[in-house]
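User: tokens in, sequence out, please.
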């Protein structure tokens, strides 16, 4: 049976907002607000979706309540969540009353920040339509700037805007692009921003695969009803946020959120261990014929490879206070082996050109600077070089999408040989210069590109297995 709502929804106030009310938000941040409400808190959330799908009507039709199912190989639990007070789709977003909102979070994906990839600089071309009509914005950056300008004009109180996207220094990125946009659209806003808005960085973690017919069936069985907005996720949840707020905030620490002075060590740990392993499985797993993270993580060959990869990635990290890098790596692998979570590798591989620079390329460059081998990371980049732009659907119809996919497909068509292709790939501005300048790294990546060219997934897997066994015996 479902864990029913135990708090008075009428007592919740619209004190928080969230942009991007997708499955991840409904499974993660909302579960924290739900815990706060069950403990007597009054923080309710106003949700805003600027991009499809529109879910406001479905949310209202369900009485503004939805179910979250958490499951692993040990059990399954259903939680009814009612802290999402209202959802506004794009057509109604301008009407949202922000006057009482003191804390706003975002999950809009990296593309939503309208920046130049690999930097914190706004790309004016991506917000050109908003700059032409700043009071009718279509992007999240334009929308936030317009809401903040209205707040400034009304003499509104300070507010905290916290990015929860898997982007390095996400708070710095949000602050940078928003300040730049504000200076172009609303000349009086930048000074007000500096005095009244905080942009803490944060790290969020919970595996929330895209809903499937199977997961919908499990949710219905666990909760006793169908649910258009219900989500299924793993039990693990983590949220670490920088202790930098402009005004009132929810008592997140009472829901297990870590409020820290320096987020960077936590962020790097997650990006390089959990997320790095996910991206590695997305490339190597598909090359070995797998469709899901679970299939890749439970493949004995790739599991052995993953243990070596996690150890190599950990050597590039400073351990956050209270954490254990080796234990975190083991937990990350175990989470991906959760038998109820079958995250499509094609989905994980999407937007890899945004993800791989921080997850794979940066630690590779650091290992090279330390005089250590980065061949494990070269294997992942070679996999991306071979597969980026491949839009064939997997067995469930999931297709990989990457902003640089078409460019990589053309680079493969134009390359005379594997060496030429890898040289061109490593010369892309996505990566640290050291990767293209290091002859050994380039040779290793090229060698793996040739190995992956074998048409039989079993042969690719065997070559990975040979490499791991040789490494273990070295």
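Assistant: Sequence out:
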């Amino acid at each position: 049976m479902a864990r029913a709502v135990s708090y008075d929804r009428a007592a919740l106030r619209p004190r928080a907002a969230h942009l991007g009310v997708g499955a991840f938000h409904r499974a993660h941040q909302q579960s924290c607000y739900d815990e706060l409400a069950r403990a007597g808190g009054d923080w309710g959330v106003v949700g805003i979706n600027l991009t499809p799908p529109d879910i406001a009507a479905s949310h209202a039709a369900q009485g503004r309540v939805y179910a979250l199912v958490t499951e692993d190989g040990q059990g399954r639990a259903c939680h009814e969540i009612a802290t999402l007070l209202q959802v506004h789709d794009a057509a109604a977003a301008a009407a949202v009353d922000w006057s009482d909102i003191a804390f706003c979070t975002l999950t809009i994906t990296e593309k939503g920040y309208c920046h130049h990839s690999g930097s914190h600089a706004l790309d004016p071309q991506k917000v050109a339509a908003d700059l032409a009509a700043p009071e009718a914005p279509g992007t999240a950056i334009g929308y936030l700037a317009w809401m903040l300008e209205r707040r400034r004009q009304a003499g509104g109180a300070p507010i905290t805007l916290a990015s929860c996207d898997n982007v390095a220094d996400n708070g710095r990125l949000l602050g940078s692009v928003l300040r730049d946009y504000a200076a172009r659209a609303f000349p009086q806003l930048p000074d007000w921003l500096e005095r009244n808005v905080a942009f803490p960085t944060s790290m969020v973690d919970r595996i929330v695969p895209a809903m499937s017919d199977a997961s919908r069936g499990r949710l219905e069985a666990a909760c006793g009803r169908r649910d258009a907005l219900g989500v299924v996720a793993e039990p693990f949840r983590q949220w670490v946020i920088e202790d930098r707020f402009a005004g009132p905030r929810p008592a997140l620490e009472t829901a297990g959120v870590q409020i820290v002075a320096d987020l960077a060590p936590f962020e790097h740990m997650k990006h390089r261990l959990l997320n790095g392993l996910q991206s590695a499985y997305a490339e190597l797993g598909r090359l070995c014929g797998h469709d899901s993270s679970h299939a890749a993580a439970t493949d004995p060959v790739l599991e052995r490879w993953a243990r070596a990869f996690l150890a190599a990635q950990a050597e590039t990290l400073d351990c956050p206070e209270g954490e254990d890098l080796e234990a975190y790596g083991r937990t990350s692998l175990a989470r991906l082996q959760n038998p109820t979570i079958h995250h499509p590798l094609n989905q994980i591989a999407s937007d890899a050109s945004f993800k791989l620079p921080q997850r794979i390329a940066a630690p590779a460059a650091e290992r090279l600077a330390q005089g250590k081998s980065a061949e494990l990371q070269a294997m992942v980049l070679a996999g991306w070089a071979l597969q980026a732009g491949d839009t064939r659907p997997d067995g469930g119809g999931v297709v990989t999408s990457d902003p640089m996919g078409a460019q990589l497909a053309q680079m493969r068509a134009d390359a005379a040989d594997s060496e030429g292709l890898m040289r061109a790939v490593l010369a892309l501005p996505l990566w640290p210069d050291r990767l293209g300048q290091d002859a050994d790294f380039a040779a290793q990546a090229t060698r793996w590109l040739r190995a992956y060219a074998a048409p039989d997934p079993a042969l690719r897997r065997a070559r990975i297995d040979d490499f791991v066994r040789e490494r273990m015996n070295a």
